[in-house]
Amino acid sequence: xxxxxxxxxxxxxxxxxxxxxxxxxxxxxxxxxxxxxxxxxxxxxxxxxxxxxxxxxxxxxxxxxxxxxxxxxxxxxxxxxxxxxxxxxxxxxxxxxxxxxxxxxxxxxxxxxxxxxxxxxxxxxxxxxxxxxxxxxxxxxxxxxxxxxxxxxxxxxxxxxxxxxxxxxxxxxxxxxxxxxxxxxxxxxxxxxxxxxxxxxxxxxxxxxxxxxxxxxxxxxxxxxxxxxxxxxxxxxxxxxxxxxxxxxxxxxxxxxxxxxxxxxxxxxxxxxxxxxxxxxxxxxxxxxxxxxxxxxxxxxxxxxxxxxxxxxxxxxxxxxxxxxxxxxxxxxxxxxxxxxxxxxxxxxxxxxxxxxxxxxxxxxxxxxxxxxxxxxxxxxxxxxxxxxxxxxxxxxxxxxxxxxxxxxxxxxxxxxxxxxxxxxxxxxxxxxxxxxxxxxxxxxxxxxxxxxxxxxxxxxxxxxxxxxxxxxxxxxxxxxxxxxxxxxxxxxxxxxxxxxxxxxxxxxxxxxxxxxxxxxxxxxxxxxxxxxxxxxxxxxxxxxxxxxxxxxxxxxxxxxxxxxxxxxxxxxxxxxxxxxxxxxxxxxxxxxxxxxxxxxxxxxxxxxxxxxxxxxxxxxxxxxxxxxxxxxxxxxxxxxxxxxxxxxxxxxxxxxxxxxxxxxxxxxxxxxxxxxxxxxxxxxxxxxxxxxxxxxxxxxxxxxxxxxxxxxxxxxxxxxxxxxxxxxxxxxxxxxxxxxxxxxxxxxxxxxxxxxxxxxxxxxxxxxxxxxxxxxxxxxxxxxxxxxxxxxxxxxxxxxxxxxxxxxxxxxxxxxxxxxxxxxxxxxxxxxxxxxxxxxxxxxxxxxxxxxxxxxxxxxxxxxxxxxxxxxxxxxxxxxxxxxxxxxxxxxxxxxxxxxxxxxxxxxxxxxxxxxxxxxxxxxxxxxxxxxxxxxxxxxxxxxxxxxxxxxxxxxxxxxxxxxxxxxxxxxxxxxxxxxxxxxxxxxxxxxxxxxxxxxxxxxxxxxxxxxxxxxxxxxxxxxxxxxxxxxxxxxxxxxxxxxxxxxxxxxxxxxxxxxxxxxxxxxxxxxxxxxxxxxxxxxxxxxxxxxxxxxxxxxxxxxxxxxxxxxxxxxxxxxxxx
Length: 1124
What we know:
Blueprint: E1 16-20, H1 52-60, H2 64-78, H3 86-118, E2 121-126, E3 129-134, E4 143-147, E5 155-161, E6 167-172, H4 173-176, E7 178-185, E8 193-198, E9 209-213, E10 225-229, E11 234-235, E12 240-242, E13 246-253, H5 259-263, H6 273-304, H7 319-323, H8 326-341, H9 347-366, E14 380-381, E15 395-398, E16 405-416, E17 419-423, E18 440-442, H10 449-461, E19 466-467, E20 472-473, E21 479-480, E22 489-490, H11 494-505, E23 509-514, E24 517-521, E25 527-539, E26 544-550, E27 556-562, H12 564-567, H13 573-586, E28 591-600, H14 602-617, H15 622-633, E29 638-649, H16 653-662, E30 666-670, H17 675-684, E31 693-697, H18 699-702, H19 709-726, E32 746-751, H20 752-759, H21 764-779, E33 783-787, H22 791-802, E34 810-814, H23 820-825, E35 828-832, H24 839-843, E36 846-848, H25 853-890, H26 904-914, H27 916-925, H28 931-936, H29 952-976, H30 991-1013, H31 1019-1041, H32 1055-1060, H33 1063-1086, H34 1092-1104, E37 1113-1114, E38 1122-1123
Parallel strand pairs: 15-30, 15-34, 30-33, 31-32, 32-33, 34-35, 35-36
Antiparallel strand pairs: 1-8, 2-3, 2-4, 4-13, 5-11, 5-13, 6-7, 6-12, 8-9, 9-10, 14-36, 16-17, 16-29, 17-18, 19-22, 20-21, 23-24, 24-25, 25-26, 26-27, 27-28, 28-29, 37-38
Helix pairs in contact: 1-3, 2-3, 2-8, 3-9, 3-26, 6-8, 6-25, 9-25, 9-27, 10-11, 14-15, 16-25, 19-21, 25-27, 25-29, 25-30, 27-31, 29-30, 29-33, 30-31, 30-33
């Protein structure tokens, strides 16, 4: 006997869903057919057991290098090629397998995390019985019971709370980054209800739901009681129940339709600059490969065109060979040469790079300097693919609150009716409630007592703070409530707690909210009661919040607090001037809020109450309607005063910012705070100096001139461009303000409203022109401050710089949910494990406990990671060029017959076993400069800026080195073979001996070359370098010393042992290794440190170690400097 009423619509809406609480139909005359909604399983994994193999293989073969080697392998299988398919198939299989294992392991961890969530036991109420279920079995409409400190398993509408006032407290730190407690209200008293709500959407702060609560009494059959529900009634999955023993709620969104799941966006694949350089180098080597194959194919047919060369008497063609199409034969020959030379493309480099990144990321996690004893956590690496990008950062975009500052608010002072009040903390006034000579001290004069008490009442009433229930057990088990002043406060913002505590200092104490009544203890120790009628919540657009309360005398009052720019236009202007001076003075170091009030007449309140209720019931345009009502109510107010709270700087924030600027990194502060507060923080962090000329482009400066805003914007941009760009002296490369006092420093300030005008100008041509001028000005300033920024604008700024000329590497760092957009947009995103929850941490590439850790992360770890991987990439191309060049030269001496110079075992194992481990160890452990020196000398960071070690210059150097070594190996051994008798018994060496000698010289040279480049020796380096050489010798003896039954032909049978029996072979091997490495040795010995920074480092290091001679600073090519 129930009837469902849907408000505002005549028929069921497509864009909404109706949920029956407890799966009970609302009409006994109709059959209940439950709607189909998704289950409560969370799936963040990428693969399943069944699709892992095909899906992973498909993704891996989308990489050009893997696909290329697959084609080469298929060519070897199909076409008669000079080398076995194993030579390319085995390395490819190794690369694919290792990558698949790594990705499979990472996905297994995601499966494990999903199962922990999905199998979590929860309590569901069914027909009055409490049933334990797994979380994944919850369905939409189930009534779920959650106890204190438990996490909500899905999105719930609150039905019942153990608290008397029907509310509960939650922390949403894992969702929106706010660790403060929020109040959720219970608006349902019966389970016989249907809820109509919108379809799932990701907005955490907006939910349009309308419920029709249906009573069971016959008289109420046609009178469904409708309640409006909003975000304050919704308990989000991932949030935690706090300060409330137990609640019951109905599931409205489950599984992948919860707001948490919809907000989880897979991070877009960020690719490092090193990866782009690898692809560019790969194309060059691919061109070299094709050129070699074309040259050999052409010369083969030129040589065979001479009489007697095509078909010599000892190698007559078969009939099938004679019948083969000539052009098809040329094509297969070309493919055969491609296969023969294909090892110039280092397929194993990709897996080595993957392993280097994956294993190297552990060094950040293990770094003890990143451990924070407060939160008992260290650094976290979410993305190991970007380690080297940490050494290439050119722009840092940082949030202010919680990142540069501690987000730990402390009440400093207030201004009442134009008079300044400071708290005097005297030992005789510990209680803080003395009226005659209490903590309120006049500086010059004092406002009237009535104004003081009105202001303090406003601080006690205009908030969403709740008193934390802390109870202790007495001796007899009875509950003891501690004194009020010892109880804690919980609120959605630390500002609010600071203001309530500030009011306590002045004698007004907030006692809590009970059954819609707010209790205050005044100066006379009398309790005042106020009925809470409405809360007009804070939002970043209005930048203010209000409450409507009714006093015991029946007066209806509106109290409002907010930013000065939001409050001043809504109060009487004659009151503004008395407060403005105080606000502007405090804004240089503190966060300021203005407080206003208004007495509402019965008609005004009735109109506001009706408007608010109607707006909250709306399913469409709900926020806009509420905003309209808010703006109508919050007008014509009286300004009472202003408050100042301090947000202290993070530990070593100024030193960190100074070090980053010394490293040539430009720091931009992007914040939602007001300009004055943010500017003072920039001065405190030394981003702005006393001699810095500030170029301000804000709404205030746009309104100074007579012309229109658009024209004024254009004029200011042109003026600033002339000053900062055109008239500025040219800056020497690598010099920043720390070393050049002669130059003029500029700082740039812009606010959100002006930025919108710059980015979204009325005409397209103007917009592009403004963007270019804006970017050029900013890039010529030492620091940039963007204030009053919305989260989306933060991301727009990052994107603008990221896509500017030169594509500079950007880094964003923040601690709150409002920083997620810019963290995802930047090349590298860093989250701070601060007080604003873990949303930023979850979406970041790296997470650190404090801002001060950014210095070591970039200047030490980033620097070393980049140098290591750059050397790895150049070394891989070099050693493969050394490997294949002799093979190419050999074709000129074997009639272009595609005869391999090396045995198939050597071809296969060269990159996998003989030369892979030393470079992997080098790329993990190398410290060409000590970490301490890197931290003390920030300018060293600039020497590797703009991908310095992977430019075309170093690439050409390494390529020429590979060509030189390849020529030396081949022609040096050929010179040896000019003597026909190389053995004691007069026998001559064959072609496999020739190839083995070349290969031996090759393996020893490239390994010892790496040993020469190593500056930081550990036992692991010794083990892999000398172990690899020993393994090669052992393998060669073992491979050639046994007759292997599975080989049709054994080319190296006793070849290696026979070769080493020749003194001439020994002499040539040793001489060629020495000749190859001699230029490198001479360069290291005789080259002196170059550049001012090298001398500075050497000087500093010498002074540090004057008592010992065991530390020497050397700069060697191709590295910049070294610390032995």
